[in-house]
Design the sequence.
């Protein structure tokens, strides 16, 4: 907003060949409080002076030797095409007013002039000039936000376009590398090579996930969580991410409340912040991750836009690294902003963190000083509800096994073979089909033990997974259905598989994740019969 101090700080130039006029105007303006007033009696140097100083106002005489005021204004316009010409004509020729205005002058005063009138016109012109500049800034900001939104949309469209095929490929890379590590054991010379392949797959999957979360092509599926459990489960991975000269300290709070969030995405926030902290400590240091209960009061809410006062769980990530300047902090959560060298940062890490925290109803703040390190504080609403069953601790030890008959329906042959191999290795009898129609025929012809669970892709040629599942449910209402897909959420939402109560595992999944998810679903009590469009296979 414009203030009086802004107006009085502006630079003013007086152009007049009469020394008495210059002295009078200078004395009047300085006496009125204008801090920067200069003058020249040579009209030929006006353009060069304006180039250097960008005056907010030029008081210009029309009749001067060597170059008149009209020529000066033409020179100013040629010097800066399309500029706002900040000229107040002060002249003894009142009959030239119309010509002066047409030439670009913003106002006109006749000599001999009234000092109060000149001061009023000067103030009004400077106020109008500042308003013009503010409008230009707002326009540029709006254009910048539009361009930024276009970038975000382009990123989202790109990510959505490649997510399905890319996730299938990454599922195969991660799945087979994990299976090979299990078969070869920890002592083999190939172990480190396989770990590198598996880690690369995880990074690729993580980048795709960040793109989708950030561009809001993938929604956060919220469940009741114990934040201390989430952090504890991430400990080993965080340790692997750090360099040897960085000490990692996890400080869980006592009796920390529960939150509503997504385990995978809260973990993604931790990974992104930990990687940033690691890069900020090239010579080593300490990374501290802590949890505690927190209360955000009305004062805090007023000081932080979008924050509601109330009870929260705070997750803090602190480092002893290089810290940040205020300028860097101002752009920290912007898409594609990074201070890392070219090729070493995507500019999506913190933007993804902000998106995840906001989708969880929370708030993220940053505190940093140069040379003193950085602390991110994430506040997530505290709730008084029991943990969701899906988030309770999984039994440690071997991957769970079983003997039930399963049906895997997947149109990608590589992913289908991987899923069948994972489940067969755990003792299950596995049938396979490449689409929904083939799966129905396989189920019709099957004469062995009843099929207990179907793992199915959502979007497939001939017949999709949801329609196939409805038909299979007519034969066996208690049949368990586990949907899977590498498509983005908005691409599969209309297929109905993201509705509450529907079981879903996103691609890419690891062998252990799939085995645990299948066993968990098989061990649940039989589900009630679902509404279906058909009553029997013969309908």
Sequence:
């Amino acid at each position: 907003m414009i203030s009086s101090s802004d107006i009085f700080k502006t630079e003013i130039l007086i152009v007049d060949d009469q020394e008495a006029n210059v002295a009078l105007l200078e004395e009047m303006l300085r006496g009125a409080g204008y801090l920067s007033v200069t003058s020249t009696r040579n009209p030929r140097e006006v353009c060069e002076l304006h180039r250097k100083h960008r005056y907010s106002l030029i008081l210009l005489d029309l009749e001067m030797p060597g170059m008149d005021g009209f020529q000066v204004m033409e020179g100013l316009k040629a010097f800066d095409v399309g500029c706002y010409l900040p000229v107040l004509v002060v002249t003894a020729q009142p009959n030239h007013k119309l010509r002066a205005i047409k030439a670009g002058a913003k106002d006109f005063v006749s000599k001999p002039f009234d000092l109060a009138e000149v001061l009023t016109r000067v103030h009004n012109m400077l106020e109008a000039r500042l308003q013009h500049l503010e409008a230009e800034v707002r326009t540029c900001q709006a254009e910048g936000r539009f361009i930024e939104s276009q970038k975000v949309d382009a990123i989202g469209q790109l990510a959505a376009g490649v997510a399905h095929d890319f996730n299938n490929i990454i599922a195969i890379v991660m799945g087979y590398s994990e299976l090979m590590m299990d078969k070869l054991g920890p002592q083999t010379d190939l172990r480190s090579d396989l770990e590198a392949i598996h880690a690369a797959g995880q990074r690729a999957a993580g980048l795709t996930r960040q793109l989708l979360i950030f561009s809001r092509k993938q929604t956060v599926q919220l469940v009741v969580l114990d934040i201390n459990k989430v952090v504890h489960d991430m400990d080993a991975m965080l340790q692997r991410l750090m360099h040897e000269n960085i000490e990692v300290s996890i400080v869980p709070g006592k009796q920390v409340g529960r939150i509503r969030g997504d385990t995978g995405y809260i973990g993604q926030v931790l990974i992104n912040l930990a990687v940033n902290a690691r890069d900020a400590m090239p010579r080593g240091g300490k990374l501290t991750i802590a949890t505690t209960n927190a209360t955000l009061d009305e004062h805090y809410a007023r000081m932080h836009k979008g924050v509601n006062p109330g009870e929260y769980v705070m997750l803090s990530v602190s480092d002893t690294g290089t810290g940040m300047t205020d300028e860097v902090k101002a752009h920290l959560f912007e898409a594609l902003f990074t201070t890392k060298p070219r090729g070493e940062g995507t500019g999506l890490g913190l933007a993804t963190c902000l998106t995840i925290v906001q989708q969880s109803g929370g708030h993220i703040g940053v505190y940093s000083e140069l040379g003193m390190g950085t602390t991110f504080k994430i506040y997530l609403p505290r709730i008084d509800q029991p943990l969701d069953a899906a988030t309770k601790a999984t039994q440690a030890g071997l991957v769970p096994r079983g003997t039930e008959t399963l049906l895997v329906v997947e149109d990608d042959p590589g992913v289908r073979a991987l899923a069948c191999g994972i489940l067969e290795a755990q003792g299950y009898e596995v049938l396979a089909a490449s689409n929904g129609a083939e799966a129905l025929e396989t189920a019709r012809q099957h004469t062995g033990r009843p099929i207990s669970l179907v793992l199915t892709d959502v979007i497939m040629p001939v017949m999709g997974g949801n329609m196939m599942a409805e038909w299979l449910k007519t034969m066996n209402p208690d049949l368990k259905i586990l949907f899977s897909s590498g498509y983005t959420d908005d691409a599969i939402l209309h297929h109905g598989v993201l509705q509450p109560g529907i079981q879903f595992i996103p691609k890419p999944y690891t062998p252990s994740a799939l085995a645990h998810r299948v066993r968990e679903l098989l061990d649940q009590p039989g589900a009630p019969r679902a509404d279906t469009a058909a009553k029997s296979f013969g309908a």
Remarks:
- The two ends are 71 Å apart (CA to CA).
- Residues 140-218 form a domain with the Helix Hairpins fold (CATH 1.10.287.130).
- Residues 143 and 201 are 38 Å apart (CA to CA).
